[in-house]
Amino acid sequence: MRKNILVLGAGRVGGAIALDLAGTHNVTIADISEKALQKVLLLNPNSGRLLFDGGNLERLKSTSESFDLIVNALPGFIGFSALKNCIECGKDVVDISFFPENPFDLHALAQEKGVKAVVDCGIAPGLSNMIAGYHFATMDVRDFVCYVGGLPEKTDGTDDYKAPFSPDDVIEEYMRDARFIRGGMIVRKPALSDVELVDFDTLGALEAFNTDGLRTLLQTLHIPNMVEKTLRHPGHADRMQFLRDFGFFDDKFNTERSVIFPKSHTAELLKRKWRPTLHEKEFTVMRVEVVGTENRKKTRYTYTIYDAGDEKTNTSSMARTTGYTATAVARLLLNGWIKNNGIIAPECLPMEKNGKFIFQTILDDLRRAGISIQIKKTTID
């Protein structure tokens, strides 16, 4: 049965979500930008369109009545308020806005409204959390490590990155301390620290460094050791650390004559440098390692997820891996497989009553979309 879905945000990921869901449901996409809406409608002319600010509660209330589900794909700086508005409207939500606020602050409101709101529903956070949650429910997990990144295929050593998201968000990621779990305790370190090389069979060596990506995992799963690292081409961390240490990422500082805003100027420069060109080859890769005891044996599970985008629809790998994780969860929610009301962290989905089915369905949906998922089990002597 076709359901009515409202997608807030017509950016790269929001567009991919709308296109994927439109085959089986009635999709309307809303954005404050007419240009962004037109880009999505070129690929999917059957979708409805709404030109309005998704953060406007009154407009959202008057608009959302006829919808069975809302997907929040708005930018992080308005994501939390938009999610709150969706919950106020009494609508179930799948959220990929990755806002900095604590989503559990809205848990009581979501329960009061009878709403299911699945947050952080991308690849990482998102799928990485689900892998952690699945194994947490099926074995005694001691260590969880996630390496993830979206990168251009080729690099000349200086132009080593193209931003699938806003450069402002990337800069924020490099400024915020990374939190991880070591020996059961939360530890903080600067972003871009603890650089290491990680080898991939077909990609060669990529650089990994600390970023603040565990998010809800810090509160939900009691695993003694957990860390998330961002992957880039080698040398990227040094270049970004140089810019950060010399103040290029600072919000502002005063001179005798004026106020300087280094961060905004740097973001504009990086936007030009990091803007992907049309049909530029790129990929998203994630490796997740889970180590623990299963059937009295020390066991390691290694997941490798890889995608190189879709040239036919000009959909990037990051939009596909993020967006299709969200659409898989949206279908499960619409079909009644997700039972609990409130704010739902992605790692909690595999721990629901039908958790194994939910987890396997999400993996199957991603594979059907052409995303490579390899799982290797190793017994450790």
Automatic annotation (TrEMBL):
InterPro entries: AASS, NAD(P)-bd_dom_sf, Sacchrp_dh-like_C, Sacchrp_dh_NADP-bd. Residues 5-118 form the Saccharopine dehydrogenase NADP binding domain. Keywords: Oxidoreductase. One of its GO terms (molecular function) is oxidoreductase activity. The keyword Membrane does not apply. Residues 122-371 form the Saccharopine dehydrogenase-like C-terminal domain. The keyword Transmembrane helix does not apply. It comes from the Bacteria. SUPFAM superfamilies: Glyceraldehyde-3-phosphate dehydrogenase-like, C-terminal domain (SSF55347), NAD(P)-binding Rossmann-fold domains (SSF51735). This is Saccharopine dehydrogenase. It comes from Candidatus Sungbacteria bacterium RIFCSPHIGHO2_02_FULL_47_11.
